[in-house]
From TrEMBL:
The chain crosses the membrane at residues 26-49. The keyword Hydrolase does not apply. The keyword Cell cycle does not apply. This is Uncharacterized protein. It comes from the Eukaryota. GO terms for molecular function: odorant binding. CDD domains: PBP_GOBP. Pfam families: PBP_GOBP.
Length: 174
């Protein structure tokens, strides 16, 4: 088609139109490839998070014969724990007890929850470490009266995730 562009003026207009269409197709395909590449990078960033050591305890991992990958697999893509999973239940109970998060009477230690939220959890979610927001989140989630300790801890964790998404300020919007 390009070789015949110079023979007549009408044919020249068709040739320019053809070139423009091909150029637009190329731009569209390039944009699609760049968008796909961007999506792959975002997916890799979200699903390749590294758990800080405060999130898990080596003692519990050894006791339960699990590794970091097993702990990562306990949460879904939105970081929620599934209720009723025996391995998750054992892990959250062991971690809470070994870190003195739960008293012998079964009460949750608000100070430990607050500092973990501020120093570990909010940064893990790429949220700013705002003490006012951390207090609001702790107040909303700590009063959980389930009889089963594992259910209480899983519900607490899931409440924290919901509240972080609700109140947390993204680091990327500052």
């Amino acid at each position: 088609m390009y070789r015949n562009c110079i023979k007549s003026e009408d044919n020249l207009k068709v040739c320019y139109l053809y070139r423009e269409i091909n150029s637009n197709k190329f731009q569209l395909v390039t944009i699609m490839y760049l968008y796909t590449f961007y999506c792959v990078l975002c997916f890799a960033q979200v699903f390749s998070f590294d758990l800080p050591e405060k999130v898990y305890t080596k003692e519990c991992m050894e006791k339960l014969n699990i590794n970091k990958e097993d702990v990562r697999n306990m949460v879904d893509k939105d970081f929620f724990f599934a209720r009723g999973d025996p391995q998750t239940n054992e892990f959250v109970e062991c971690s809470a007890i070994s870190r003195n998060f739960i008293s012998e009477s079964g009460e949750m230690n608000r100070d430990i929850l607050y500092h973990d939220l501020l120093d570990v959890v909010l940064p893990l979610f790429n949220k700013t470490t705002d003490s006012e927001i951390a207090n609001k989140i702790v107040d909303e989630c700590i009063d959980n009266r389930k009889d089963n300790l594992a259910d209480r801890l899983v519900d607490l964790h899931n409440c924290l995730v919901n509240a972080i998404n609700k109140y947390g300020k993204s680091l990327y919007t500052i």
